[in-house]
Amino acid sequence: MVFGQVVVGYAGSGKTTYVHAAASYMRALGRDVCVVNVDPAAEENSRKQQEETGEAHARTFDVDVRHLIRADDAAREHKLGPNGALIYAADYLCANSDWLVEKLRPFVARNCYFLFDCPGQLELFQSRDSLRGALEAVTNALSLRWCCLHLTDSHLCADGFKYVSALLCTLSAMLFFDAPHVCAISKCDLVDASMRREMDMPFRFYRGGARGDLTRLADAMEYRHKGLRGTHLAQLTRNLLELADDYSLVSFASLAVEDTRKLARVVALCDRSVGYVPASDAEGGGGGVSAASLVAGEDSDDDDDDDDLFDDD
């Protein structure tokens, strides 16, 4: 049996950046890692572009579905728009999932840890079966045990309505993926005083998810937006938050790929969700911060770190 993470989230939520940062971190711990791109529309990222943008982690993939099908080639050959080309490419991947299985087999033989970088168009998972079908084929053929890591961009916390939408999207993903689910708010290092002033609640509240009364956000939104109180929109927002609160399924870890401790906590949560205990971590190898050593202190440490972002000026 091998283990891995399937990383999903809105476009621009930091999936590819996380995948490569996590791969670098795991390799430093002594793990053998396989990074898989399952986005047929992913953009190329050359070494020159990496130097120009200042990215710390090279965007190279061990297995890349663009070697099988590219969305731009599908668009050109079949005269499709960008969305139609992506759907066609996803369907083609599902129909040829044996190609992906055979590409992954050598890494299974090395007992690699798999990181799957998925498209940002979540409707490919939620309204179609193509990518889920490809993942299911890989899971069954290779005895892969994986968790779904759902990333939510921190800027969505600055708008209560966007946060509610992201919360429901996360719940929806939980229903569609038959796997353990880990949620994280990405780009926490970009939360500044200006963003803090736009938030209806302190940042720790948004991290808490199921650990706090989500209807408090509805109260704060009505207080801040005076014209909202008593409207159908206000009632709908409150009902949706109560629905999410009733399930008590969603809570978010903090993620900033440049912060090793936050990155390690997310890795540790994913490891724990699938029951993965790497030998290098168990033996304390690799140096640096061990993911396993951070699981027990995840909540308290993260709260302290987040409070630093919101000290009064």
Fold and architecture overview:
With 313 residues, the chain is α/β, with parallel strands linked by helices. The protein has helices spanning 15-28, 47-53, 71-78, 82-95, 97-109, 123-126, 130-142, 160-176, 193-198, 203-208, 215-224, 232-247, 260-274, 279-282, 298-309; strands spanning 2-9, 33-37, 63-64, 113-117, 144-153, 181-186, 253-254. The radius of gyration is 20 Å and the shape is globular.
Key structural traits:
313 residues, 7-stranded parallel sheet, 15 helices, 51% helix, globular, disordered C terminus
Structural class: alpha/beta
Query: How big is the Rg?
Result: 20 Å
Tally the beta strands: 7
**Sheet bearing the most strands, described?**
7 strands, parallel
Poorly predicted segments: 46-54, 285-289, 295-313
The general outline is globular
The sequence of SSEs as H and E is EHEHEHHHEHHEHEHHHHEHHH
Please list the strands of the largest sheet in the order they lie side by side: 3-2-4-1-5-6-7
Assess the beta-strand content as a share of residues. 5-15%
Mean pLDDT: 81
Distance between the termini: 51 Å
Number of helices: 15
Helix content: 40-55%
